Amino acid sequence: MGKRVALVLAGCGVFDGSEIHEASAALVHLSRGGAEVKIFAPNIEQRDVVNHLTGSPAEEKRNVLVESARLARGNIQDLAELKASEFDAVIFPGGFGVAKNLCSWAVDGKNCTVNEHVNSTLQAFHSAKKPIGLCCISPVLAAKVFPGCEVTVGQDKNVDGRFPDAETASAIAELGCKHICKNVNESHVDKANKIVTTCAFMCKAPLHEIFDGIGTMVQEVLKLA
């Protein structure tokens, strides 16, 4: 019997939703691991909409659940319906949508608020001692919700220009959490909290290295499940 894993999305597209390559990589590795996956997203309006061709704001409104349905091929549920008791683990891909729609990190940094259903989902899995997988910017969710936990967003210095968002590690430390430096093809396991993190596109790296790093995260989550 395969592990039952919930995947939580934040929209569709790196600049205002879930990072598509990260979501796809997680799904591929979960499939390879024999997991049974169900996909969820909060039924809320996006903080903003970005024209991904120009990088400019678009004057329109979009719904996070509706946009996430694009990635889920339509097979998706409202995050409010997620019951931790029905799953063995939960995974959050990254993308700016995490920092805009699942929490307000993009605007408020370490002083951000976390969406109520995202918060309750994280708390429910953590309380049940079930693993939580997070990649790219998603580890800030754990840092905000679980003070004292260990996560990685890659490196804490912009090594060779590959980690332009290295200051995120400092913000995580200011929240009372421990940042663990890892390469893009690695993940970190906080065994005490059953939180598994990998930096993904927080590092400027070839796509296959990001894919492999997400693979290590998924493998560790499935081991803990």
Features:
alpha/beta, 8 helices, two-stranded parallel ribbon, Rossmann fold, 225 residues, 34% helix, 7-stranded mixed β-sheet
How would you sum up this structure, described in words?
With 225 residues, this protein is of the alpha/beta class. It has one domain (4-224): Rossmann fold (3-Layer(aba) Sandwich). The protein has eight helices and nine strands. It has helices at 20-32, 64-71, 96-102, 105-108, 116-127, 139-145, 167-174, 207-224, and strands at 4-8, 36-41, 77-78, 89-92, 132-135, 150-151, 178-179, 188-190, 195-198. The strands form two sheets. The chain has a seven-stranded mixed beta sheet with strand order 3-2-1-4-5-9-8. A two-stranded parallel sheet has the order 6-7. Strand 8 and strand 9 (195-198) form a beta hairpin. Helix 1 packs across helix 8 (207-224). The longest helix has 18 residues, at 207-224. The model has no long low-confidence stretch (mean pLDDT 98).
Would you tell me which CATH topology applies? Rossmann fold
Low-pLDDT sequence parts:
none
**Largest sheet, strands/sense/barrel:** 7 strands, mixed
CATH architecture: 3-Layer(aba) Sandwich
N-to-C span: 12 Å
Tell me, briefly, the overall form: globular
The helix-strand sequence is: EHEHEEHHHEHEHEEEH
Strand % is 5-15%
How many β strands by DSSP? Answer: 9
Could you estimate the helical fraction of the residues in percent? 25-40%
The spatial strand order of the largest sheet comes to: 3-2-1-4-5-9-8
Average pLDDT reading? 98
What is the CA-atom radius of gyration, in angstroms? 16 Å
The number of helical runs is: 8
Protein name: GAL3A protein
